[in-house]
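Let's practice the habit of predicting before peeking. Look at the sequence and jot down your guess about where helices and strands might fall. Then scroll down.
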Amino acid sequence: MHTFAISQYGERLMPRKAEYKYANCLSYLVKEDEDGDGNTLKNCTLVDSNISRQDRDTYIEVENLEEGAYWLYVDMDWNTKSFEHLKGKLNFSINCYGEGDAIISDNKSKDYDQIDCLNDIFFAYSKYHLENETGVVTINKDKLEGIEIYEEDNYWKTGY
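Done guessing? Here is the structure:
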């Protein structure tokens, strides 16, 4: 088993009246295509994803992690006041622990276009949920003739 952990800056490290709240965190762990040219998300495979609401730590736990190159995409939905307090500070950290060795590279976000990355990740996400019939993603062919629309169930379950 391997656990990927995303830990946010601790609220106890803030001034008492800082109104600091943890961010909502979306994380996607994908495996790079072994047949590809490397260092790309094209044809990647979703391993797991997790969404947490205002928790300090977000975890992705994987039972049998095969050897290979993996990408972890993390998106933090910061509260404006909380983010103001974090200027110049480490916002969050990532670690991995488990049975085998894991090498975590530097942050590569500046080397890749976010839209392209999300396109590949969401394609892998949709493919995973459709193949495993989880009901999280469905295809709607009725809205526009000749076009398939991938629809996602509301993860947040907010009621609006």
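How did you do? The two ends are 37 Å apart (CA to CA).
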